[in-house]
Amino acid sequence: MSEQKIFINGKKIMNDNFNSFITQNGLIKKIGPKKDLMKAQDENTEIIDLNGRYILPSFTDGHLHYFYYALQKDSIDLKNCKTINEVYDKIRNQAAKSKENEWITVINWDEEKFGGKVNLDRYLLDKISENIPILVKRRCLHLGFVNSKALELAQIDKDTPDPEGGKIVRDKKGFPTGVLQDESISMVDDLVMEKQRDKFKNIIRNSFKEFLSYGITSIHTDDLWQKKYREDIYKSYLELAKNNRLPLDITLQLRASVKEDFDFHQKIRKELKEIKNLNTGAVKFMFDGSLGGRTAALRKPYKDDTTTKGELLFKKEKLESLIDTAYQLNFQPAVHAIGIRAVDIVTKIYEKMNKKYPNKNLRPIIVHASMIDDKLINRIKKNNIILSVQPAFISSDYQIADKRLGKRRARHLYRMRSLIENGITLAGSSDAPVEDINPLLGVYASMRRKEPYKDNLETWQPNETIDMKKALQLYTTGPAFQNFEEDNKGVLKVGQKADFITFKENLLNLTPEKLLKQKVKEIYIDGQLVLEN
């Protein structure tokens, strides 16, 4: 097969003057009219007729947890449960089939589906089973719920101190209630992961085809946060890469909570310099929790729970010191901040770093940045901060926004149009397994700002909707710029990687509702067809 391919009769979604192009060695070599390009044909050239299909650069997911998405496929999924009894029955049925000390893991718990009146804890879960350890995770992944058996196996009791960045919720007498926040969940997760250790490579491989089917060819994944297993997870990715078993282009977002973590990150950054399809990206720091779990850090208390205004996972002085270390070592920093207090503090730190290191263009990131007022928008723009956003959060959170924050504060959530109009770079992502990986669901959420497949619902904050083109760019040009890859990915032009997908219809001419019915037809990486739906 020739290295040179001529693709004819295609229609580029973002450019009406684009219909044929030549690829060679995985790159786009030339673009132009079919009759001109065909002159470059020789006896070894492969001609590929796109038959009028519409072409788009392939999608990139700018922030997710790929390994944990794949890992949780064996968990009980509560996403489609309509009643609390259905939740109990699912877990109880699994417990009846489980052996003693065999973990039951459950995902996508959401108390709001049941009126917010059911709060899981060890007392309730003990009624399901006292002998089988149970771990239930809220859909935001910032809250975990365990029964007494799980607490026993994890050796969590009245005298167990809270880990840094986490909280063991306790009753008035100091005994654990079975509710775990943020880093304290790892105390249980470590036990669950131990029995999966020899399966890590298979776990990583089992979701590649699913991602490709949605047109996703690149991911920026935050998988190295469990220190006990990060070396094993990293080596699993590395071995797959060395054996050419990574069909996706994978950027490993690193995780740091102490300065010593940078030793590990420097080591793997050096090791991956010449490895195909696997590289290192930003170093991520956790700073607050989630809106759904009422742990995102606000300036004032939550409307529906005035006893809390959320949590900062560690002191701002420590975060500043860690970010300073990242700048010294030339690591791009990325901070998880959802609540407006957390976003404000992170912005102030980045302002300091820009003044301290004026010649370092590290493109600092705030991951999520869900709640932002006008003053913050101006400061974020001025300091060239990239926002790693999850449009599907809009579909998930808009119905609880007023309840959690009140209408006045809720206006500051997910301000897509305001951010784009102010020239701020947005990199779209799913945060999977928190949200569905299909980028078209994120595009829909950006345009309609409501739950998909429910036409009777009204658009939430219509002044913040964006158009189809801008929504698609969240998953193409945005992540490419975030990852310093704008010269290689995100658009289809000469010199760029020939990574593209095709659709039967022009997405720009569709309503958001019709968009949801579209399927990616073909997925090309380096000009090679890798999947056909």
Provide a descriptive summary of the structure in words.
The protein is an alpha/beta fold and 533 residues long. The chain contains 20 helices and 23 strands. It is 32% helix and 21% strand. Strands 7-14-15-16-17-18-19-20 form an 8-stranded parallel sheet. The mean pLDDT is 95.
What's the layout of helices and strands?
Elements: E1 4-8, E2 11-12, E3 20-24, E4 27-32, H1 34-37, E5 46-49, E6 54-57, E7 59-64, H2 66-71, E8 76-77, H3 84-97, E9 104-109, H4 122-128, E10 134-138, E11 143-146, H5 148-153, E12 166-170, E13 176-182, H6 186-194, H7 200-205, H8 208-213, E14 216-222, H9 230-242, E15 249-255, H10 261-271, E16 278-286, H11 316-328, E17 333-337, H12 340-356, E18 365-368, H13 374-382, E19 386-389, H14 392-405, H15 407-410, H16 416-421, E20 426-428, H17 439-448, H18 468-473, H19 477-482, E21 500-503, H20 512-515, E22 522-525, E23 528-532
Helix pairs in contact: 11-12, 14-17
What's the average pLDDT?
A: 95
Q: What does the radius of gyration come to? A: 24 Å
Give the strand tally: 23
Query: What is the count of helical runs?
Result: 20
The residue fraction in helices comes out at 25-40%
Which spans of ≥5 residues are poorly predicted at pLDDT below 50?
none
Major sheet: 8 strands, parallel
Strand content: 15-25%
Strand arrangement across the biggest beta sheet: 7-14-15-16-17-18-19-20
Coarse morphology: globular
State the distance separating the first and last CA atoms: 23 Å
- The class by helix and strand makeup works out as alpha/beta
